[in-house]
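Figure 2 data, in text form.
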Amino acid sequence: MSTLGVWFGSNGKLVTWTVPDRTGRNKFTLKELQALVGGKIELVSLHGDPQKRHAIVNETGLEKNLPLNEHANAFIERITKKKSHLRGNVVIVKYNEEGDTSDDEYEAFVY
């Protein structure tokens, strides 16, 4: 099994998805990601991460003054060695850059 993504709730809750899931899928849909972050998504590259993961965040998290996500930021700082100030719920995924899926699908990765 591989990890599809990790959701870091701004309340400190952590949820990990593995694939294939119960439906046999190994991708998130855009609607699922929007539900997880509570609105339109923004893709944030985690520069310095050897696994080339990305963070999915609420596009208006700063405007809405969502709380800093301490757990997600600590994880990101550990893997990138750079300061992070992401707000609200955060989903960590590996973006499929191969071009074999639509732009709103995110492939599985192994931690």
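Caption note: Residues 99-111 have pLDDT under 50 and may be disordered.
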